[in-house]
Amino acid sequence: MTVSFCGHNRFPNSEETEQWLTDVVSNLIEQGATHFYLGGYGGFDRLALRVMKKQKKLHPNIQYILVLAYLDRARDVEVAKDYDSTIFPPLESVPLRLAIVRRNTWMAEVCDVMVARVDYDWGGAATTLAHARQKKKRIILNPNYNE
Predict the structure, then answer these.
(1) Domains: count for the chain
(2) What local confidence, expressed as pLDDT, does residue 145 receive?
């Protein structure tokens, strides 16, 4: 089972949010999740990475993978050191200004489950969540979202 994360760069990061995400990830691992895709750019991505590192100590068989939006970016090379591996989706012909959006779309398309911390219905995280819904993915949404 493959899990992707999506969430805002800025959000009320709290112990409650971290505990919610820890519980969600732990339950998904118990259900057979082994691959976790992260975008690596925003605040929610940093929280998800922190949670995944803790889970890796308990479940060494899981993989948390940085999904790159660009190739040959010095920042990505440095960030990639914190992940088990990286993957570059088929984005070679995508204009740079659309790379993150297309990467997020790819993550929504290839995952089995989307774990989302989305607090409002606009912006990149909301767009990614909408795409996952359109693709009929299983979605685990933070309890604070107001639909």
Answers:
(1) 1
(2) 56
